[in-house]
Amino acid sequence: MIIWITGAKGFIGQHLARHFAAHGNIVLGLGHGLWPDAATEAGLAAWLNGEIAGSNLTSLRATHGAPDLVVHLAGGSSVGAAIANPREDFARTVTTTAELLEWLRLESPPTRLVAVSSAAVHGVGHSGHIAESASTQPLSPYGYHKLMMEQLCRSYASCYGLNCLVLRLFSVYGPGLRKQLLWDLCRRLQDAPHSIELSGTGDELRDWTHVSDVLRAIEATAKLPSPEVPTFNVGSGHATSVREVAQTVIDGFAAGGQRSKLQFNDKVRAGDPFSLVADPSRLQALGFEWSISPQQGIVEYVRWFQGQAGTGRSS
């Protein structure tokens, strides 16, 4: 199978490229950044450094033919960055999706498209498990733009018969992630501070999903895109508080000496809903099961970080 991954140089993209390549697929990537070692680092048969635009997509097709599957990972990846620069986030998430869909409409209508979205489309007003059919009330430009991306997919599927599918990821983490809470905590704990202060109350709830389970979820749904645009939550349904997660990271570092005290400043960050926890029943109906618990995965992440720090690669 010929698989294209947009945003293949990102955290999930590199993991996914290696996963698909290891299973005998021809995997091509498109995104930003020079990547001379793309073949050895991610198993890519080709890497195109550039915008998601018709000319670049046509050039990528010239290397190995039209794709059977496109996994669209390109787009904004940070609530904070989207709040700071909403126009750039719009271009990265919404404009790129429009360009990709238009190229597929004109050049490769049979191609299946898996569009990777975010639980941030649900935003505020939710408690407990959030089903795919729950209301969408984004709290940030990031969430609004992901919702626009989803709506573009539904528009092209409805009007032109494109085969699309939407996956809403919850809190994805794992080895190789160099941003967000786990990374920031590990960076700070490197210096063995007496105390660590985080924003919020610590009671905020998230559905932490290991990247290896995300890869398996993408693979499990890769043959399901259709003009009906099925939508799946990619989250286990297991609610873990920010306090629990942070304490697990601190405990992982404590094995090497000093234990830092954890405290919260009760200041809610812009764009952060209190609770984002998946109803996983739709994905489970496919026979899907999660393989790595947050406790296991976070300890693994700390060990990965410490290994990177030991080689001088943590910055």
Structural account:
This protein has 315 residues and is α/β, with parallel strands linked by helices. The chain is 42% helix and 19% strand. Strands 3-2-1-4-5-7-12 form a seven-stranded parallel sheet, sandwiched between helices. A four-stranded mixed sheet has the order 6-15-10-13. It has a two-stranded parallel sheet with strand order 8-11. Strand 1, helix 1 and strand 2 form a beta-alpha-beta unit. The longest helix is centred in the first third of the chain and has 22 residues. The mean pLDDT is 93.
Describe how the helices and strands are arranged.
Layout: E1 2-6, H1 11-22, E2 26-31, H2 38-42, E3 46-49, H3 54-64, E4 69-72, H4 79-84, H5 86-107, E5 112-118, E6 129-130, H6 141-160, E7 163-169, E8 171-173, H7 180-189, E9 195-198, E10 205-206, E11 208-210, H8 211-221, E12 231-234, E13 240-241, H9 242-254, E14 261-264, E15 275-278, H10 281-284, H11 294-310
Parallel strand pairs: 1-2, 1-4, 2-3, 4-5, 5-7, 6-15, 7-12, 8-11, 9-14, 10-15
Antiparallel strand pairs: 10-13
Helix pairs in contact: 1-8, 5-6, 7-9, 9-11
